[in-house]
Amino acid sequence: MASQPPTQAQLNLAALAGSPSPRTMRGLRKIQSHQTLSSSPSLASSLLPNTRSSAGPAELSQPAQLDSPVRLRTHRRARSNSDASSQTLLRDGPQQGNVQEALQELRYLVLSTRVEADGDGMSTYRVYLWLILLDIPLLPADEYISLIHRGRSPAYTKIRNDTFRTLATDPLFKRRVTEASLIRLLNAVAWRLHDAKSKHKLKSRPSSSRRREMELLINTPPSIAEEEPSADDMTPSSASNNSLAGSHATNSPGITSESAIYVQGMNVLCAPFLYAARSEAEAFALFHTFITRECPGYIRGAMDGVHRGLVLVDRCLEIVEPKLAAYLFSKGLQAKLPNKILRSFPPLDAKEIIALAVLIVRKIPEPLYAELIGHAK
User: Fold this and answer.
1) Residue 197: which domain range?
2) 3-state DSSP call for residue 114?
3) Of the candidates 186, 176, 112, 177, which has an alpha carbon nearest to the alpha carbon of residue 144?
4) Same domain membership, residue 291 and residue 313
5) Number of folded domains in the chain?
C-alpha cells in the first residue's frame, strides 16, 4: 500500500515539534508544494494561456508555443516619437512617386513631432530635411571653392565687422562654428549676389539690336495696321527684356537691382545653417537659397521685409493678447524697438515654441496669415 503524503496538519505538528535543521525545512517545503499541486490538477493547466479555444484549423495544426519575454517585446511600439517615420520617409522616398503628398507628410511630421536632437542640438537628419523642403539640388564643392578663391568681396569689411559677435554668448555655437568659416561663407554668398546683380543689370538694359529697333520705331511714323506683338510671338529674350522687373539670375531668383550683397544681420541668419550642416558647401547652398528665394526682402538695401515683419508682430499681438498689446503700446514698447532680450536670446525649446505657434495661428485671420507668409518676398 502506497504511503500517503503528509497532510497540512501533520506538517504543522512537525514544525511545532522542535526547531528543525535547514535541510529538514527544505524537505518539508518540497512535500507541501507537491501536495498542493497534486490536490489541484487544474491549477497548472490554468496558468497556460487558452490560445487554442479560439484558434482556426490552421493554427490548431501548429504546436503550442509559450510567449517568451522576447516575443512580448516585439509587440510593443518600438518608438513613441515619429523620428523613425521621418527617417523612413527620407530613406525610402515618396510612395508611388507622389512627391507632393510625401512633402505634405514630411511637413506634418516635423510640425507635430519635432526633430529629435542630442544635448548639443545636433540631429543626424535635420540638414537633409532642410535640403528637401528647400528643394536644393546637389552643389559641387568646386563651385564653392572657386568663390572662396576669388578673395575678398566688396562687402568683406562689413562682414568682418559682424562675424566676431555672431551668437557670441552661445558656447555650443562657438565650439562648433569658427569665425573663419562664417567669413568664408558670407564672402562667398556676397560674391554670388554680386554676380547675380551684375547679370540682372546687363539683362535689364536693352541690347544693341533692341536699341536700334527702338530707334527705328521712334523715327518711323506708325501705320494703321500696326499691332502690338502678342505674348506668343515674343521670344524669351524679348519677354525678359520687356518685363517690368527684369529677369533674375538663374541661381538667385529673388535678386533685383535693389538687393544688397550684404546687410547687417545676414551673419545671424547664416549661423544655424553652418551649425547644422555637414560642410561649408552644404551650408552655402542652404543659406543662399533661403535668402534669395524665401526671404529676399530681408537682404534688400532698405530691408523692407524686416520692417514689414516687425509691424506684423504688433498686429498679431493685438489679436492674440489685446490687453498685453495695449499695455505695451501705451508704454511705447513696440517690436521695432530693440531691447536686451532681442540681442541675447535665451535657450529655445522647440517643442514649446511649436505648440505655442500652432495655438497662436488658430487665432490669426486668413488675410493676416497671408501677409505673414509673403512679408519677406
Assistant:
1) 136-201+260-295
2) coil
3) 186
4) no
5) 2
- Count the helices and strands in the chain (H runs, E runs): 21, 0
From the list 298, 321, 318, the residue with the least C-alpha distance to 308 is 298
Same domain, 332 and 365: yes
Please report whether residue 230 resides in a domain.
Answer: no
End-to-end CA gap in the chain: 102
CB contact set of 148 (below 8 Å; sequence gap of 6+) = 184, 187, 188
Q: Kindly report, residue by residue over 272-320, the tens digit of the pLDDT.
A: 999 999 999 999 999 999 999 999 999 887 888 999 999 999 999 999 9
312 close to 304: Cβ distance less than 8 angstroms: no
| Residues 265 and 371 placed together within one structural domain of the fold | no
In terms of domains, do 287 and 306 share one?
A: no
Angle between helices 280-289 and 266-276 (to 10 degrees): 130
- What is the grid cell recorded at 57? 484549423
pTM of whole model > 0.70?
no
